[in-house]
Design brief:
Layout: H1 2-25, H2 29-37, H3 58-69, H4 75-88, H5 93-110, H6 114-119, H7 140-150, E1 163-166, H8 173-185, E2 190-193, E3 200-204, H9 206-209
Antiparallel strand pairs: 1-3, 2-3
Helix pairs in contact: 4-5, 4-7, 5-7
């Protein structure tokens, strides 16, 4: 009898934990499961040194991916694929496309290449000191989304946004709220939810955010 009660108690606790996670982050368990099983083959693997800088050369990584898929891959497509794989590799396709699109917006806004925009000229690696992370190797889904994004085949849900955050990237809700207040004060914008993209929030000017 005790074991039955214990089992039901654990299930209830797990359900409450999942509900709290869903409420805070917006992560949809079904979408998460679909993303986990739908990534396709791993095409490359990245490694970093003690400073968080990638050990592998970008050209070599692209060559490995080309060898795996048997066709040409552009530098921009590889970079965008690595960004979505690094920033939220288990996200659904819509979120990955949105992350990539915001990086494209940022590069266009600054008038630089995607490589320069993402890394600030520091090469691939972890995010500190860079606009976004390019620390992880790519899977087939990351590359497919990147190529479709570059070809203009996917819906653009970014509203021109240049920045995003993941609520799950913060230790507490208070940390997230402090960053939001800081970015608002700096004129970066305010957080805006985009349907179907789990814990990600894009940032837009207040005047524009009310129209999204």
């Amino acid at each position: 009898m005790f074991e039955v009660l214990k089992k039901h108690w654990l299930l209830s606790l797990g359900g409450l934990g999942l509900a709290a996670w869903w409420f805070f982050t917006g992560d949809d368990p079904v979408m998460l499961l679909q993303a986990l099983v739908g990534r396709g083959r791993r095409l490359t693997t990245h490694h970093q040194d003690a400073n968080g800088d990638n050990i592998e050369n970008l050209e070599i990584l692209i060559g490995e991916a080309v060898g795996a898929v048997g066709r040409t891959i552009s530098e921009d497509a590889y970079l965008l694929a690595s960004i979505s794989a690094s920033e939220h590799g288990n996200a659904g396709a819509k979120e990955k496309a949105l992350i990539q699109r915001i990086v494209m917006n940022y590069a266009d806004h600054r008038g630089v290449s995607i490589l320069q925009a993402a890394t600030g000229g520091k090469g691939l690696g972890t995010q500190p000191g860079r606009y976004c992370s390019t620390a992880n190797g790519i899977f087939e889904d990351d590359l497919q989304i990147a190529e479709a994004n570059l070809a203009g085949e996917l819906a653009d849900d970014s509203s021109g946004s240049l920045h995003w955050v993941h609520k799950t990237g913060f230790a507490t809700l208070g940390d997230y709220q402090r960053v939001c207040a800081k970015w608002k004060a700096e004129g970066i914008g305010v957080p805006v939810d985009v349907g179907g993209v789990s814990s990600l929030r894009i940032f837009l000017p207040e005047s524009q955010a009310t129209d999204v």
